[in-house]
Structure formats: C-alpha cells, structure tokens
C-alpha cells in the first residue's frame, strides 16, 4: 500500500532570531543525541548490551526543541522506551545513560532499568516506559501535583511544567484520551508531545488511525492542538516555547504533533524491511542536524570549523561514556531488591 506524505505545516524559520550561543546549544544537543545512538548501535551489535534497544536517530529536533525550551532540573520530562535522547536533552550525563544501558550500578537507574527505563530525580526525568502510552498518566499526575501544590497548598515555587513524549501509536491508546480530558478540564501545566514518525513498529499510522492528524484530537477536549515540522528544531522550539508559556500562565495544556521520522528500524532487532526506500530517502533528506547546520552557516552564526569542533568534542564525550560504562561495577547481587520501593 502506498501512503502519501502529509503537507508540512508552514513555518517561517527565517523569522526566528537566535543568538550564536542558543544556536550552538541546540546543535550540540542534537549531535549528542545522534552520536550517542550510533555508539549504542555499535555496542549492541558487539554484545555489550541486552534486551530491546530503540534508537532515536532522525527525531532529535523534537527532543532538543521541546526540552531546551524548558528549565533544566526543574521542569518534568516523561518519555517512552525510545528514551536515551530525552534523558540526554534533560541533562542526564551521557556516561550515566551509557552505564544504564550496560546494566551497571553507575547508571542513572542504578543498572536496574536498562534501555527502556531511564530515570533521574535530579534532572526531573520521570522515566522511560516499556508499555506504550504508560508515561501519559504518570506525566499527567506530575502536572496535577504541581498545580495542586501551587493553587491549593500555596507553594509559589510549584510552577513546573511537564513535557510528556509519546508516539503516534500511543495516541490510539485509552490513556491518551482519558488523560487529555482531565488535563484540559483541570488546565494542567503540561505539553503532550506526539512524535508522529508514521510507524508503530510495522503498522503504518494512516492504516491504524481513523483521524491520522493527531493534533486535531485536541479540539474535542477544548485544548490547543498544533502540528509542527518535527525535523526543524527552530519550529519545534517556537511551538514549545508558546506552549510552555501557556502552561506556566495557568492556561492549560497543549497537544503538539511533531511530524518526524526514525532513520533506523523500530529497535535494533528490527530488520526494517517494511518501509519503502523512497519514504526513507525523502525523510533522510530532511535530516534535522544537516538542516540546522545549514541555517547556522547561512546566518553566519558559526563557521564549519566550529561545528566540526563540536562534533569532535561530543564524539569524545560519547567514547568516554563507553569507557566509564565498561569500567563501572555491576550491581551487587545482594542488593538487587533495592530501588523497587522508595527508601527513607
Ligand atoms: C501496551 C503495549 N502494547 C503493545 C506493545 C508493543 N509495542 C512496543 S512499541 C509499539 C509501537 C508503538 O509505536 P509508537 O507509539 O508510534 O512509537 P514509536 O516506536 O514509533 O516511537 C508496540 C505496539 C507495548 N510495548 N505496550
Ligand atoms: Mg511511531
């Protein structure tokens, strides 16, 4: 079956003013996501990590554009099983993410979680979740507690916004509808970010969904719904900044549908034979990192040497994360029962 490509929403990237510092921050975060995932693939095929590993290549502009519009270590982020790069954007050090993938005690979830269960209290990362849509109620709860603490308990500092990431497939699950209803009803400070990469494993979104334009589903809850080119980091950032401001001002949630694509198979165990070569090539040509480096160069904000230096610095950081993970101890078997329940 052949599916047509959706027309991308119009966005005037030229109209967005950014400083060199902001541009480099966005660029570095996306490159970190890309090089980290490439290294994961290498380590997985070398037998260094086990279980399912889902990579984020191609979708970097969504994680970077949204999370870099939020306050680090204060606002909440919830993810899915495709969670390494959300963790990195949220500020979890690459060595802690890599060590988690290696199942080591020094991992951000103490080696108990692995690829699909990144968690970090200091970085307000509420977790990766193996079940599709499982993070949506958790993120909705986080947003409810911020609002409750602020408005009912009078805690002025409880002004956190939550970003809840999930896939197109998850938007057909019941939690999505129940949580959007509650969030709109209670005007919760939350961004529901659907990363519509057109596929749920081997199921094409258009084939499984009566209304494939997910952002339109916001309207039935009286919620703001927007679609955005998920391969354009400045477009994602602009939409996210507006949504964060709306949430922070007590005006409630936003459903953001980012049109994006994963450049690799569903997981590293997927031979990726179902998607057509044409479709893959079309999206590969929209690579968010290549596009953004062009923008930075065209605006004379950076030189190609500066970008290369960042690439090298990040590559070194990623390599060091592997050394750290390899040299780290495994959890002590006598302590395997720990971290199931909160400790005093
Ligand atoms: C509740 C539940 N049902 C089924 C699965 C098996 N499963 C794992 S990933 C996936 C596809 C989800 O696709 P999508 O939400 O679009 O996210 P993407 O993988 O594209 O990022 C499915 C069905 C699961 N993990 N959890
Ligand atoms: Mg998907």
From TrEMBL:
Keywords: Oxidoreductase, Pyruvate, Thiamine pyrophosphate
Disordered: region residues: 322-344
Biased composition (Basic and acidic residues): 334-344
The reaction(s) this protein catalyses: N(6)-[(R)-lipoyl]-L-lysyl-[protein] + pyruvate + H(+) = N(6)-[(R)-S(8)-acetyldihydrolipoyl]-L-lysyl-[protein] + CO2
EC number: 1.2.4.1
Domain Dehydrogenase E1 component residue range list: 29-333
GO terms for biological process, alphabetical: pyruvate decarboxylation to acetyl-CoA
Short name of one Pfam family: E1_dh
Transmembrane segments: none
SUPFAM superfamilies: Thiamin diphosphate-binding fold (THDP-binding)
Names of the cofactor(s): thiamine diphosphate
Signal peptide: none
Keyword Oxidoreductase annotated: yes
GO terms, molecular function: pyruvate dehydrogenase (acetyl-transferring) activity
Keyword Oxidoreductase carried by entry: yes
Quaternary structure note: Heterodimer of an alpha and a beta chain.
Function: The pyruvate dehydrogenase complex catalyzes the overall conversion of pyruvate to acetyl-CoA and CO(2).
Protein name: Pyruvate dehydrogenase E1 component subunit alpha
This protein's encoding gene: pdhA
